[in-house]
Prior knowledge:
Blueprint: E1 23-31, E2 34-39, E3 45-49, H1 56-66, E4 90-98, E5 105-113, E6 118-122, E7 125-127, H2 129-138, E8 149-150, H3 155-160, H4 163-173, H5 179-215, H6 218-360, H7 368-429, H8 435-444, H9 457-460, H10 466-475, E9 484-486, H11 489-499, E10 506-508, H12 525-529, E11 534-535, H13 544-554, E12 560-561, H14 564-568, H15 570-573, E13 580-582, E14 586-592, E15 599-605, H16 619-694, H17 698-796, H18 801-808, H19 814-829, H20 838-898, E16 902-908, E17 918-924, E18 932-933, H21 941-956, E19 963-967, H22 975-989, E20 996-1001, E21 1014-1018, H23 1026-1032, H24 1038-1048
Parallel strand pairs: 3-20, 3-21, 8-19, 9-10, 12-13, 19-20
Antiparallel strand pairs: 1-2, 1-4, 4-5, 5-6, 6-7, 11-12, 13-14, 14-15, 16-17, 17-18
Helix pairs in contact: 5-20, 6-16, 6-17, 6-19, 7-16, 20-21, 21-22
Amino acid sequence: MSERRSKRAKITRGHDDYLPGNITEIELNNFMTFDSLKCKPGPRLNLVIGPNGSGKSSIVCAIALGLGGEPQLLGRATSVGAYVKRGEEAGYVKISLKGETETEQIIITRKINTSNKSEWLSNGRVVPKKDIVEIIQRFNIQVNNLTQFLPQDRVCEFAKLTPVQLLEETEKAVGDPQLPILHQTLVEKSDELKNIKRAIAQNGDTVNKLKALNKELEKDVERVRQREELLSKADTMKKKMPWLKYDVKKAEYMEAKKEEKDAKKKLDDAAKSLNDFKEPIEKQKREKAKVDSQCKKFSQMMKQNAEERSVALDKESNLSVDVRGKHNEMEELKKNEEKRQQKILKAKEDLAIAEQDLANLPHYEIPKDELGNLGSKIADLRVSVNHTRLQKTEKETILKQKKNTLMQCTDRLKEMDNRNNKLLQLLKKSGAGSIFEAYHWLQQHRHEFNKDVYGPALLEVNVSNRLHANYLEGHVPQYIWKSFITQDPDDRDFLVKNLKSFNIPILNYIVDEHRHKRPFEISEQKMKALGIYSRLDQVFDAPEAVKEVLIGQFGLDQSYIGSKKTDEKGDKVAELGISDFWTPENHYRWSGSRYGNHKSASVESLPVTLDLDADSGEIEELRSREEELHRDVIDMEEYLKMLVAEQRQLEDEAAKLEKQREEIIAIGTHERKKRKEIVNRVSQRKSKLEQLEQEEDLDTGMAKLIEQAAKLNRRRSQCAIHIKDLLVQAVGYNWRYAEKHLASLEHEAKIKEFDIGLKEHEKLAQQASLHLEYCKKEVEERKQQLLVAKSQAESIAVITPELEREFLQMPTTIEDLEAAIQDNISQANSILFVNQNILEEYEHRREKIDSLSKKLETDESELKNCITEIDSLKENWLPKLRSLVAQINETFGRNFQEMAVAGEVSLDEHDMDFNQFGILIKVKFRQAGQLQVLSAHHQSGGERSVSTILYLVSLQDLTFCPFRVVDEINQGMDPINERKMFQQLVRAASQPNTPQCFLLTPKLLPDLEYSEACTILNIMNGPWIDQPSKAWSCGERWGVVNGLAQQSG
């Protein structure tokens, strides 16, 4: 064999030993079984170890989904929402990848929720999924390739891969990235080649058959063609017929056009004569319009003059009325002067009387000192009253709060007494006849015990859910509910001595410091799927001593609670190791035989129970609180009575002093009011007298009125002169208006004379116009007929130079042309033959022969091109593929030889059937046997696992992918093969160009040989795992962890 091709271009690792695309960190939150997880894989072989159910496969699912994979490829669930941790609404997966540079770090985050929606983030920034896919493709990460990513639920699928499928997966994972593209192109081209060959064969046969059929019909075709020529000549003559009819219509149209032209000339002459006759009429109308305009102007001036005269007359009349008014005012003024003199005399007499009353009024002084003393005393008393009232309000508020609290406490005591009495009555009916006496004795002697004493137990237990109360009462024996529980041996002896006559069970609780409570956790997905959601020790509240007695003696922490769904799947619950559980309808129990390994099951309906779903007791505390509140209320009420009496006394004293002060103030107010009234009266009478004296005297008023009357008379004289001028102006306007109106009448008479001759000319012009319209209509009709004839002729035949030459050789009249057409049709009808469609069949076959011949030429050219392309693609693809398979075979065979067995990998070639090419894996595990193709029919499960992992190891040094994942591939292997397989993985991981590898397994053999290339990832899950996980998280390599262990030892 020639020199072997180099396996793969060396990729430079960073200082941290990671390759580009390696996973450097995985972080999960609310994902499958994990609340939270953060781990840092090593750059080479990562051994993910943990017991079944601890969450190893959850990491595989996280890698697949976090790097763009769909849920279907994992073989678990079809929706992404199923991977959210049960009981949570959303979660996320965060994958950190090594970048192409030393410092580049790519963090891909996928957030998922139970609504099956995803959100993608790249380095913390929200991006569409296509951006994530581009990053994945850049590093050649293929989570859907079984040779690169083999989850637990798809291990069996790898063994089921056909040789063709195995070749496709191998091409994608290793070798030249162009190999799968070339392979797919070759498959498509080979299918195309087959189709072309098939088409050439079919079309060649068809052409030969068609040619043979046409050769038999050539004589009949010749006679058909003669007949067709005669019919064609007749058809050509028929084409000329509409053109002859078109010529006739064209001649008629030209004649109508000529008549239209003559009618238009006559109309133009009549219009010119009419316009010449209209000119003098228009002149008279213009002159008349001018005169009418002047008449209208004088008419408006006359109207304006009349309006001015009317205004002047109204003004003169108003002035006359004003003059008469002034004369009347003079008479009235004389009468008012006499009345004014009488009022002045009376005002002087009233003023003298008021001044005398003011002089006789004595002076009054207010006792200010006495008022000041009274005000000071009243203020002090009011301060005392307000202080007392404030104290009273505060005390009343506190008293109200105390009373409300007391009422609540009393109501609660009544409620508790009723509840306890009800429960005690239930116990009495169940057989505890002296339970009331025993309970009351305990309440009376509680102070004599060293520690708290509880009982009966039924009163101490509180269950919020009625259904859970039924489960609890059915699980615990009836006698325990009437028992009393102590926490001290001396208390137990004292209680037994005094309650012996009541026949009541007494239990003593001793604290067990070494006993650890079993935490309640339902983390198994199977348990949730069966409807189990709680445990009996989690559904009730009680004092610690009571709860521990019930759990310790009756195993409440071993009894589970399920739903109706659990009833339907009761048989599967036992498979989870649960031997006792309750459902809404039944109680299930499993027990093992003492004399054998078989188990028996019993199913019982829910029993009739007592009443546990109520609050636990607080009676003693409530009673003590009630007595304290009652005393506080009484003391507060007495104190309030004292404050009320004190406040009333202070208010009475203040009222007396206030009354004295008001009496003094009222006397002073009365005196001031009396003096003020007299002073106001004097002032008013003085003002009235002064007002009367200041009024004008008679002479002054008369002089003013005489002057005003004179002014009014002068204005009347001016108005009379203006009215005279307006009358003169109106006479002139009337004279000129009459002159213009007569001239207008003369123009109107002349216009009427001209109108008589104008009507005769208009009649002649109208007749000429109607004749022109008729001619136009006739021309339009002839034109439409011409267009229809032309359209019909063109629809039958368009005139071409060749057709025009044929028309010249035909008859020129319609009658002769019709006779010639009939002669040609008669000669054609005289030629007879059997098959009417023979010519059509002949021509159709000939066209088909031409078409198929061209198609054959094109197909043959395409066939040559296709063969050339296939040869070129095959030269690029097949040597590389053979070399790749040879390298895989060499590594695979060497690995099998080291395990004392034999194996080979070969390329299954099929010439040009590229879709049949495949990879055959042949192995044998016994020296005497023959190499057999790997399949479920020839090898066991462990042998297939060994073969699968060795094949994957053989791809290690050829792969272009940054990491590979294999989940629990060592299951089913015998210890010898498993040990050898592990050594192969460790050695492959130590090679320089080896990609990162994840191997998930629940266990490893002891004393395996590890190297610095190995990283151990321990999956530890559970409520007490926090501290141990911190110790394991300190090391990133097995050697580091081992060194820490030696130092601690």
